[in-house]
UniProtKB/TrEMBL annotation, chains A, B:
<protein>
    <submittedName>
        <fullName>LacI family DNA-binding transcriptional regulator</fullName>
    </submittedName>
</protein>
<dbReference type="InterPro" id="IPR010982">
    <property type="entry name" value="Lambda_DNA-bd_dom_sf"/>
</dbReference>
<dbReference type="GO" id="GO:0003677">
    <property type="term" value="F:DNA binding"/>
</dbReference>
<keyword id="KW-0678">Repressor</keyword>
<dbReference type="Pfam" id="PF13377">
    <property type="entry name" value="Peripla_BP_3"/>
</dbReference>
<keyword id="KW-0804">Transcription</keyword>
<dbReference type="Pfam" id="PF00356">
    <property type="entry name" value="LacI"/>
</dbReference>
<feature type="domain" description="HTH lacI-type">
    <location>
        <begin position="13"/>
        <end position="67"/>
    </location>
</feature>
<keyword id="KW-0805">Transcription regulation</keyword>
<dbReference type="InterPro" id="IPR028082">
    <property type="entry name" value="Peripla_BP_I"/>
</dbReference>
<dbReference type="InterPro" id="IPR000843">
    <property type="entry name" value="HTH_LacI"/>
</dbReference>
<dbReference type="InterPro" id="IPR046335">
    <property type="entry name" value="LacI/GalR-like_sensor"/>
</dbReference>
<keyword id="KW-0238">DNA-binding</keyword>
DNA sequence: CAGAGCGTGTAAAACGTTCTCCACGTCGAG
DNA sequence: CTCGACGTGGAGAACGTTTTACACGCTCTG
């Protein structure tokens, strides 16, 4: 009524507008948009001209009612983990020149909230889902995957309904143990994430990492010295784990962790206890995130090729979405040790 | 035809199913879902029971055709900046117990790709948009805001179509300069992001920061010593800026940067030149991200209350979406200096 | 006791696409 | 010349919601 500028002034250009402008049917326009079969070159050009003229952009919600929405959903527990940023970059680069848009749902660590986020993505008609180390019960993921193409990153549990991309975390652990042993360490501890509760994932990254660590220690005849401290992958979690380990009767001379950020928590604990790194304690992270390379940090770590994992996941997902493949598959990446300045031979006792 | 497990087995439960199950019309169910006016208590209970029975979840795409989609879109240039993670957490916490879902579009730094991402969000019928320091031309943002409620975080340029949330970056710069001067520094340089090109944002965070820095230097009679080095906010960008500054004829005794990660790049440059921190060079970051607090880092920084900024943005946006407010508004947060171990009195010459 | 007004529920028309048919014209084979 | 096949375009029915407009029955007022 009054002169106040309202919210929605100019209406959207719809497919009907384009059809009218080009003097053809909406069906024809739709075909051109999706470059479907059954349209002549002349028609394509005419319609394309109309589209450009009017600046038409398809209405995704309307598309979602019938066909695809050209949107890929990514579930993430934790935006802070720089490793996930690498994965995200990989996904984005792979999809950059396609029609797909990537939308990220950041859910936090709570399994219930993660489940809610996954449902949100499904309800919004994502064409496909990439779940990064989901904490939701496996049954829910299987359920989702039954109706929407899904790629799971991280968990080693394979399935015939979803695809997966994993790092050979067992090899990664072996790499670290071998290296530390070669430096002369024997008393090597692992800081890993807490085990999965009742959510039915048997082979989480942390479980496989622990397994690889234990095997490697065994291989070197050091099983009696092996010990795993469970904690959250955060600065604080690492700090607590570090405190526990380093104030024990016989503290380790080297600590490896399942995440770079946790390693820096251990670093803080060591510092507070007056230990110098690497003189008094060797420290190894995991994931080789940007964090590890920082000048004041210089953390020895294990590189997981997050970017490659992300692009592999995106490629696999699109294959499924466009039903060019109907069999589940699993991609495994090989980790690589990156030595920096937080590791050295143990001080003689 | 064959026994191979197909993609979509069980159909979704729709509003029609619920209506039939409850013996009412779909309109009634719709009203209950949106708790709209005109439904009796008895009706509400009956319908709610049917919803629970069937596990009904509304189809967001279908909703988007007519009404709202209960989705908030967030545009982010860079997942790696930990400061943005704080903002995201604030948004999420604010919206946790509402019906809204937050979806993030990670666009990277390229303005064209950012514009594409914004369009994607609009096409997907987001109810509202939160743009974190967008690099797209201001005109485009105004255009978007004309049809979709929008909150801009970072840029100080106000508008009567979008709301904004900013940090008083000029005060922040003043805080740092005052502190460094009080320690005895005079030769203080600033590392800031490159100026905006032709995109018409006049008062970007970096512009306001530079302004505040220059004023503060002037206030202390140090304007002749002021110098601003422009670079990307990344480890590498900081490194290059640091190299330039520290190899100059008369290198500064203190460097402040517009982002923590850039400060760590300067740190690396200093290290490479054999300078010790804070003895030979005092270093101050900005944003007080988790990075700054890390044990090996201990960077003096300026805290911006990202979490609070995020929740403020979310609150403002929801007010707009639910049209409880029709006037643009701007929220400004006050920064706070956090002193750690990268700053000290300059070494006498 | 008529009629206005209110509270509650429903029918049905959007919303902007996709996609299945079907019609039409042309061309080649017989 | 006829018939079938093929290539191209269009009509119209979905898809699952929201929302408008209205019908119905009740209560209250005068």
């Amino acid at each position: 009524m009054d002169g106040a500028s309202a919210a929605k002034p100019n209406k959207r250009v719809t497919i009907t507008d384009v059809a009218r402008h080009a003097g053809v049917s909406t069906a024809a326009v739709s075909k051109v948009m999706r470059n479907a079969y059954g349209v002549s070159e002349a028609m394509r050009e005419k319609v394309q001209a109309a589209i450009d003229d009017l600046g038409y952009r398809p209405h995704a919600a309307a598309r979602g009612m019938r066909g695809r929405t050209y949107t890929i959903g990514v579930l993430l527990d934790n935006v802070r983990n720089a490793f996930f940023a690498d994965i995200l970059d990989g996904i984005r680069d792979e999809l950059r020149h396609t029609d797909y848009t990537v939308l990220i749902g950041a859910a936090g660590f709570d399994p219930e909230e993660q489940a809610r986020t996954i449902r949100s993505l499904v309800d919004r008609q994502m064409d496909g889902l990439i779940l990064i180390a989901p904490g939701t019960p496996r049954a829910e993921v299987l359920d989702t995957a039954a109706s929407t193409p899904t790629v799971v990153i991280g968990h080693h549990d394979a399935s015939d309904t979803y695809d997966s991309v994993v790092d050979a975390d067992d090899l990664g652990a072996g790499l670290v143990v071998d290296y530390l042993v070669s430096l002369g360490h024997r008393d090597i501890a692992l800081v890993s994430a807490p085990g999965t509760r009742a959510n039915k994932w048997k082979r989480t990254p942390e479980a496989v990492l622990s397994e690889g660590y234990l095997h490697a220690m065994q291989r070197h005849g050091l099983d009696r010295l092996a010990r795993v401290q469970h904690t959250a992958y955060s600065d604080d979690g690492g700090f607590k784990a570090g405190m526990t380990l380093l104030t024990a009767d016989r503290p380790p001379t080297a600590v490896m962790t399942g995440a770079d950020v946790a390693a820096l928590g251990v670093y803080r604990a060591a510092h507070e206890l007056g230990l110098r790194i690497p003189r008094d304690l060797s420290l190894v992270g995991y994931n080789n995130t940007a964090l590890a390379a920082l000048a004041p940090v210089q953390l020895t770590s294990v590189d997981q090729a997050g970017h490659t994992m992300g692009s592999a996941a995106a490629r696999m997902l699109v294959e499924r979405v466009e039903s060019r493949r109907d069999r589940a598959m699993q991609t495994t990446m090989t980790p690589r040790l990156v030595v920096r300045s937080t590791t050295s031979a143990p001080q003689g006792r």
